[in-house]
Amino acid sequence: MQDSVTNQNTILIWGAGAIGGTLGAYLARAGEDVLLVDIVEQHVEAMNRDGLVIDGPVEAFTQRVRATTPEGVRGQFKRIILAVKAHHTRDAVRALKPHLAKDGSVLSAQNGLNEIVIAEEIGQERTVGCFVNFGADWLEPGRILFGNRATVAVGEISDSEPRAARDYHRLLSIFEPDAVLTDNIWGYLWGKLGYGAILFATALTNESMSDNLASQRHFQVFNRLGREVMAVALARHVTPLGFNGFDPAAFMPDADENAARRSVADMEEFNRHTAKTHSGIWRDLAVRKRKTEVDAQIAIIATLGAEARVKTPTIDRLVELIHDIEDGRREQSWVTLDLMLQP
Ligand SMILES: NC(=O)C1=CN([C@@H]2O[C@H](COP(=O)(O)OP(=O)(O)OC[C@H]3O[C@@H](n4cnc5c(N)ncnc54)[C@H](OP(=O)(O)O)[C@@H]3O)[C@@H](O)[C@H]2O)C=CC1
Ligand SMILES: CC(C)(CO)C(=O)C(=O)O
């Protein structure tokens, strides 16, 4: 571990795995002063010793980076990009809080509604929303697969002047030139929850995301999940946004089923062109053998649905089945996905 040497412009990336590592490598390559913070000591050592290797079809390069474990961080920072899994958000924010400048902010480069948790810990005015849909896998210490480009968006979580969001948008545009500065970041995050629920269902099997989405037999599972999430979003007065094949309008309560079929086919097509063939959820279960983000990302939709009197039976079943796999009671297989067929 090395103590971090910092200056006012240093950008902390807190959680330097698939997403944080990829962003950090691109920002560092562009000459930004980046410090990668991660709890995995071997990963930190490898990055400091050999640089951070980005592999895959988009671009392959090795970038010199500075990295540390959280204990090695010294000083306060204006910009912190958080990229831990959703169930680690609260702990990570508590650990980074002493290092956040009073006029600084945290950007959540995560899936889920982490912005709510972050704002509870550091205040809404210091929390900036972000949506990332590119695909990446942490392969081993110091090595990450960047599987495909996809939509990236950033925006304030309230109606405030987008000063911090504009700055993060400039940074994220270094990584993704088409990054969007939005005034509806919740729309993107709820769109991703709809897409994410469908991705969790694909992780019930061992097949790729695309092969799952191509299964006509399971279309109604994906359709019901999309519709339940969109119904909760509507009840919360959110206008969900689409991206990379996911069309929220196709899953609205009165939407034509053919529109949902087209959207599922578009998601299948989009995912045929990535080197990350399986979702991060599948990877947590099948490769990393660890808990997924199901409670923090998906069960919370059911909780918010119950508050708004929106029923979410398909989401409830999905959460149960993911827990069954996490706890070794079921295997990832078509048989497990079949259990979702009953309405
Ligand atoms: N990978 C992808 O393609 C995509 C991921 N996302 C989302 O991005 C977020 C990050 O996912 P991803 O990058 O894949 O996850 P990874 O597991 O690859 O990276 C997270 C890293 O953060 C570390 N970490 C955990 N807790 C802390 C902590 N308190 N302080 C510092 N580091 C910590 C993890 O260690 P350890 O492994 O020991 O927990 C891990 O090294 C998730 O919300 C995910 O859903 C969104 C779009 C695409
Ligand atoms: C599949 C992906 C990259 C979204 O496209 C994702 O969000 C995940 O793996 O969790």
Automatic annotation (TrEMBL):
Which family does this protein fall into?
Answer: Belongs to the ketopantoate reductase family.
Per the UniProt entry, what are the Gene Ontology biological process annotations, in alphabetical order?
A: pantothenate biosynthetic process
Please give the superkingdom of this protein's source: Bacteria
Gene3D superfamilies of this UniProt entry?
Answer: N-(1-d-carboxylethyl)-l-norvaline Dehydrogenase, domain 2 (1.10.1040.10), NAD(P)-binding Rossmann-like Domain (3.40.50.720)
Q: This protein is called what?
A: 2-dehydropantoate 2-reductase
Q: Native species of this protein?
A: Microvirga brassicacearum
Where is the Ketopantoate reductase C-terminal domain positioned along the sequence?
A: 184-326
Q: What class of enzyme is it?
A: oxidoreductase
Example GO molecular function term?
2-dehydropantoate 2-reductase activity
Its recorded reaction(s) are: (R)-pantoate + NADP(+) = 2-dehydropantoate + NADPH + H(+)
PANTHER family xrefs? 2-DEHYDROPANTOATE 2-REDUCTASE, 2-DEHYDROPANTOATE 2-REDUCTASE-RELATED
Could you list this entry's UniProt keywords, alphabetically sorted: NADP, Oxidoreductase, Pantothenate biosynthesis
Any idea where the Ketopantoate reductase N-terminal domain is?
11-157
Give yes or no: UniProt keyword Oxidoreductase. Answer: yes
EC number from the UniProt entry: 1.1.1.169
Q: What does this protein do?
A: Catalyzes the NADPH-dependent reduction of ketopantoate into pantoic acid.
Q: What's in the GO CC field?
A: cytoplasm
Q: In which pathway does it act?
A: Cofactor biosynthesis; (R)-pantothenate biosynthesis; (R)-pantoate from 3-methyl-2-oxobutanoate: step 2/2
